[in-house]
Each structure stands twice: as structure tokens, then as C-alpha cells.
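User: I'm curious whether this sequence folds into something compact or stays loose and floppy. Could you predict its structure so I can see for myself?
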Amino acid sequence: MKKAHALAKTRLDLPVLVLGDNEWSPGVLGLIAGKLADEYSKTVFVWGKGESETEMKGSCRSDGYTHLVDLMSAAQAGTFSAMGGHELAGGFSVTYDALHELEKNINEAYEKTKHLQLEKKSEMKTDAELGLPDVSLTTYNEIQKLAPFGMDNQKPLFEFKNIIIVSARTFGKTKNHLELVLESGNKQIKAIQFFSSTTIKSSQGSDVELKQGDIITLLAFIEKNTFGGKREIRLRIHKILI
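Assistant: Here's the prediction. I'll summarize afterward.
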């Protein structure tokens, strides 16, 4: 897992994490993929030792929105020598010759099917209304008692109303991820959304630039951030309403 995290952190600007090591046993690939998917809220493909010298085995886990069979089926012909599974978990085989194109082909397939993920996100309903003071380690630990999350047990989604934006910025190598600092009462919390910007669509359909002082309604998940050795509770943005 230490090596897997190190590899993952070099690829966080990609929508799908694809990584592996030819010494990793097939029996641990699903565990690695599942932990990385939970940690980074991304779809993850992990490959490792195969049953022959010409082929590698792999396992994949969804971020909760990506249908893995649809994604693998959309990949360029020859990407996989075998594949199977269901919406949220799957397995695959890849030849050594195709391995060097695996990351590129999977992420290109994701771009082709991205509209399906966005449609699924828009259909999600909130589980409860909370305030920022409710965003705490105690609440996070209570939510984790409901785990593991998956197809028939979705991670709880919460609504936060009348939240003030303290700051809005983009981050990442290509500045394509959004970070908000939010305030309500005396409580401030960070909220992030990968592959987003400070410009969003309003309820009227016009482009709106998020800025300090804006009051928004937020649909978000509560998560624990451990990236870079940090230990903080934050929100993972699902949707911003303004």
C-alpha cells in the first residue's frame, strides 16, 4: 500500500488512477484498488503478476459513479485481453505489449463515457441536512460504521444551506481542481471537487464565478483527508447551488 500510494500521488491529475507492479500478487490487487478508490474518491485500475510471462492480471474499483464494464468496453480494441465484473468492481487481463498504453487508453475511454457519470451524479438524492458544525471527526466516524459503501449501500450525501464562501481557488499542476473554504457561524471547513473550477452554472443556466462572500447551498460528502501526512475532516463537493 505504501508503494501504491506513492504511485497514485503522481497521477492525481488524471480522472482514473492506473498503476501496478509486476511483483504484486493477484490476490492483493482488489484490496489495493478498493483502498485507493476510497482514499482518493477516484476509479482505480491496479495490475500485477499474471499467470504467464506475457500477460498481467488486474483488478478495478469504481468511484461510485463510473460503470466499470461500460468503461472497459469503451476502451480501444486490444486494451484488454480479458475483462469482466459489474458496475463497481471488476477484473481484467492485459498483455505486456498493451501495458504501456493501458493508462492512456483507460483515461481516453473515461472521457468518452464521462457524460454517463455526470448523469448518475445528478440523479443522487441527499440523505440529510447538516450544518458545518456537524462536520467533525465524530460524525465521520459514525458514518464509517455504515461502511463498506458500494452499489447497494451508497455513501451518505448531505445538504448544507446558507453557507458563506470565505475563499475560492483552483489547485493542482494544471489548476483543474476546486477548493473552497466555507463558513457558517464560527465554523470554517474546506471543501474540494476534482476536475472543477471556480466557474459554475447557476440555477438559471448562466456562468457564475464563485467568490468570497457568496452564499451557497452545498451537496457534499464528509471525508477524511490524509494526503501529504495531513489529518483533516473536509467536504467532497457533489454539487453547488447558487
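Summary: The first helix runs from residue 2 to 8. The radius of gyration is 19 Å.
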